[in-house]
Write a structure and sequence with these properties.
By secondary structure, the chain is of the alpha/beta class. Helix content is about 30%, strand content about 20%. It has two domains: about 10-165, Rossmann fold, CATH 3.40.50.1260; about 175-330, Phosphoglycerate kinase, N-terminal domain (Rossmann fold). The protein contains 14 helices and 18 strands. A seven-stranded parallel sheet has the order 5-6-4-1-7-8-18. Helix 12 packs across helix 13 (about 335-345). The longest helix is centred in the middle third of the chain and has 12 residues, at about 160-170.
Length: about 375
């Protein structure tokens, strides 16, 4: 559906970016939110963005969206005017043409997370049309996601549609071999994802802290590495299932005795001592994974292979980043720490799709119905 040019347009974006001392540390989500800004200008009198930032308890200065205005203006190519609240607004402000506005953090008001209809209606009052383009928040039943659209002519945005289409493709008609690479700390965080994808994929590569629970389930000595004891049986059952042969685990690791030491000794998994801590995958694992990655036609990657923020423990994540970014496969990345790794070791434009929503992308691929997905008609410009 097309929007009338005279409309005052409200856009729910995902501008939840890391900020330190008032400076934006990673502008990936801002860039994505403004990708279609020139097209939106053609269908609107002016454009007003709304978003949450962090998890404030009422008003907290450090969570103000005012800190992203400069970065947002630079990316948009014009000044973004900051409005110091998001409700009870003077509607005359939004009569100016060709302006871009940014309202204050939605979560400064309790009505946002409580999905309060009165809050949603108040938020919508100055505007004519609404675009939901915040995939990263689409798994939340919050007022700006599911209720503002009840009071305005509402659409699912172009960025949101691209997210849905890209992720849906991983659940339906994929080019094979299809490989999923999962990292991160805990198997408990991604167990539902594993259960939903394992029947679909050809290969499931596991790294990061989560792989140690699987290795422990195989009877391997993992030393003092991260372990979720309550999930050892679950890991054992997955390995013993009909799909267990699809699971590919690391063969060696960078180890340390103390996480604060920055010392690394590479060891085969069968060489672990009782006080060894696995902090990264190592060369044999990369060689093992490379064969599978290089022969894949579709790859989904979510989660680092180790504590890559520390240069002593970055090898595995760096190598996986380069392998996937240089692959000839259709590549999708599930946001979060993986995006940070790409920014550190490669380039986002080497991937077919990089999701703006880590948590939302995981829940989507778990097969869950997200509250904010496909609830409004698609936008056509």
């Amino acid at each position: 559906m097309a929007i009338n040019k005279s409309n005052k347009l409200l856009v729910r974006a995902d501008l939840n970016v890391p900020i330190k001392n008032g400076k934006v540390l990673d502008n990936f989500r801002i860039i994505k939110a403004l990708t279609n800004i020139e097209q939106l200008k053609k269908i609107s009198k002016n454009i007003t963005f709304i978003s949450h930032l962090g998890r404030p308890n009422g008003f907290q200065e450090e969570y103000s969206l005012k800190y992203i205005v400069s970065e947002m203006s630079n990316i948009a190519g014009q000044e973004v005017q900051f409005v110091h609240d998001c409700i009870d607004l003077d509607e005359k402000i939004f009569e100016e043409e060709n302006k871009i506005f940014l309202l204050e953090n939605l979560r400064f008001h309790i009505g946002e997370e409580k999905n309060d209809l009165a809050f949603a209606e108040n938020l919508s009052n100055p505007f004519d049309s609404f675009i939901l383009d915040a995939f990263g928040a689409a798994h939340r039943s919050h007022a700006s996601i599911v209720s503002v659209g009840k009071f305005l002519d509402s659409y699912q945005g172009l960025l949101m549609q691209k997210e849905v289409d890209s992720l849906q493709s991983l659940l339906t008609e994929v080019k094979r071999p299809y490989t999923v690479i999962l990292g991160g700390a805990k198997i408990s965080d991604k167990l539902n994802l594993v259960n939903n994808l394992l029947p679909i994929v050809d290969n499931l590569i596991l790294g990061g802290g989560m792989c140690f629970t699987f290795l422990k389930a195989m009877g391997v000595n993992i030393g003092n590495s991260l372990l979720e004891e309550n999930f050892i049986k679950t890991a054992h059952d997955l390995l013993a299932s009909n799909y267990g042969k699809k699971i590919i685990l690391p063969a060696d690791f960078g180890t340390t005795k103390n996480l604060d030491s920055n010392l690394r000794i590479d060891k085969d998994i069968h060489e672990f001592k009782h006080d060894d801590i696995g902090v990264d995958i190592s060369k044999k694992s990369i060689e093992k994974f490379a064969h599978t990655i290089n022969n894949s036609k579709t790859i989904f990657w979510n989660g680092p292979m180790g504590i890559f923020e520390n240069s002593a423990y970055e090898f595995g994540t760096k190598e996986i980043t380069n392998l996937v970014s240089n692959s000839n496969s259709y590549t999708v990345v599930g946001g979060g720490d993986s995006v940070s790794a790409i920014n550190k070791f490669s380039s986002l434009d080497k991937f077919d799709h990089v999701s703006t929503g880590g948590g939302a992308s995981i829940e989507f691929l778990e097969g869950k119905k997200l509250p904010g997905v496909n609830i409004y008609k698609s936008l056509i410009i």
